[in-house]
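Fill in residues.
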């Protein structure tokens, strides 16, 4: 009878105050982490043209379409640098967290992405922007690996999937902060995009709280002692991920992350542009007539702000759906298992991408209000599975290293999708809808790799 009552109890039964504190701090770090990554997405249509024109006055005289192609290219360079930096930082800080501890490594990652985001407010050229995007991403990639390992080790089995799902879902709050900054800071002619990046220094204050409130997980302390007594159990050794016992897990995890990050940067982020295109089309049409029969006047600044608000609304709708998908992944994988949960999202992601990007031109703007959240739910929601699944694939001495390698190795392998989108649009003349629909084929690769994935539902973390 007692067992039945325990099984029926809510997942959070027995979770201690300290465990909630760990989750709260991990979420704050991940929220600011996401903000640092997305503030560029929210401002790239203003920041990059400004930097290019400042260094090359002739760009201001070019036809709008030709200049837009150049801006698109350099934005993709910066996005590619972000993915590369995240790959390096994720592996580096994952190793560091296994060797010196989760708390110290978390402090280093937060300081890294905060300081370099703040420095971005002072860039003068496109290559400075790209370089700082790389450095910011090192901290961004590292923080996820460290925090996910820590939450997994601190929470009990019955609460692990839900807590890690909440942890990863918190990133959407950071995206919403970037949306607000895009509307009220970047989209404000009196402030501008530089102030958006200046806000990024705030998370550095979080490190003081981390320093005085968190202690190292018991599992990591035991792994450190075991490593001191037996060199074969050394912590943070990357080559051990390719030993026979772990090679399959490493390949599956890295492939899933590649699909997730490739479709995020090549598919998911362009959902907002569909809403922006509707606004641009509205202002490209003949101006509306006022009540007295004269053409309604709208200044360039007003038009800019209206289009920017539409773009940010599209970004909000996509990520509101993503938030729902991230929060739902934990309960789904607890009920159906990790593999089946991934399957539902990957298949739905492929279908929603094709329907939305092939049919958006004929969709009234009101339909996008519903379509974009569904698209975001499916294409962004399964990323919670990385935080839940990856720590379950590796022993404690390699948990940060393995999780960081898979998630951020996926960043590295996904980086070519940024270049591919630019090549298909700029060199091959394909529309945005055609490019994104083609890249949606990556979801099928994710489905195929699930045949080789191990099911970890109901299992304790490997020691």
């Amino acid at each position: 009878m007692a067992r039945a009552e325990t099984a029926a109890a809510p997942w959070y039964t027995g979770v201690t105050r300290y465990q909630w504190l760990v989750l709260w701090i991990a979420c704050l770090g991940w929220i600011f982490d996401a903000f640092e990554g997305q503030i560029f997405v929210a401002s790239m249509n203003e920041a990059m043209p400004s930097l290019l024109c400042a260094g090359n006055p002739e760009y201001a005289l070019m036809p709008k379409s030709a200049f837009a192609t150049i801006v698109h290219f350099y934005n993709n360079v910066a996005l590619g640098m972000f993915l590369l930096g995240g790959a390096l930082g994720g592996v580096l800080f994952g190793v560091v967290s296994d060797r010196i501890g989760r708390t110290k490594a978390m402090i280093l990652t937060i300081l890294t992405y905060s300081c370099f985001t703040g420095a971005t407010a002072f860039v003068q050229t496109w290559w400075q922007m790209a370089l700082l995007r790389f450095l910011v991403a090192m901290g961004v990639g590292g923080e996820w690996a460290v925090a996910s390992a820590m939450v997994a080790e601190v929470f009990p089995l019955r609460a692990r999937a839900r807590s890690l799902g909440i942890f990863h879902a918190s990133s959407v709050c950071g995206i919403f902060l970037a949306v607000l900054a895009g509307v009220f800071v970047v989209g404000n002619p009196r402030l501008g995009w530089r102030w958006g990046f200046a806000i990024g220094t705030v998370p550095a204050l979080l490190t003081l709280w981390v320093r005085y409130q968190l202690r190292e997980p018991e599992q990591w302390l035991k792994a450190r002692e075991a490593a001191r007594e037996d060199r074969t159990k050394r912590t943070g050794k990357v080559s051990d991920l390719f030993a026979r016992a772990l090679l399959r897990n490493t390949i599956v995890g890295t492939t899933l992350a590649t699909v997730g990050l490739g479709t995020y940067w090549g598919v998911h982020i362009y959902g907002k542009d569909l809403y922006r295109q509707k606004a641009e089309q509205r202002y490209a049409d003949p101006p509306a007539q006022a009540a007295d029969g004269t053409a309604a006047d709208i200044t360039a600044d007003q038009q800019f702000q209206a289009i920017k608000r539409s773009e940010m609304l599209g970004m909000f709708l996509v990520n509101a759906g993503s938030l729902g998908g991230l929060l739902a992944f934990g309960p789904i994988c607890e009920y159906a298992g990790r593999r089946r949960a991934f399957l539902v999202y990957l298949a739905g992601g492929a279908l929603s991408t094709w329907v939305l990007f092939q049919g958006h031109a004929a969709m009234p703007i009101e339909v996008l209000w519903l379509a974009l959240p569904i698209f975001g739910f499916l294409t962004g929601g399964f990323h919670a599975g990385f935080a839940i699944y990856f720590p379950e694939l590796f022993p404690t001495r390699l948990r940060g290293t393995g999780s960081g390698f898979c998630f951020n190795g996926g960043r590295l392998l996904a980086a070519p999708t940024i270049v591919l989108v630019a090549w298909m649009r700029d060199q091959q003349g394909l529309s945005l809808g055609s490019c994104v629909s083609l890249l949606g084929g990556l979801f099928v690769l994710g489905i195929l790799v699930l045949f080789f994935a191990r099911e970890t539902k109901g299992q304790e973390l490997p020691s």
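The first helix runs from residue 2 to 8.
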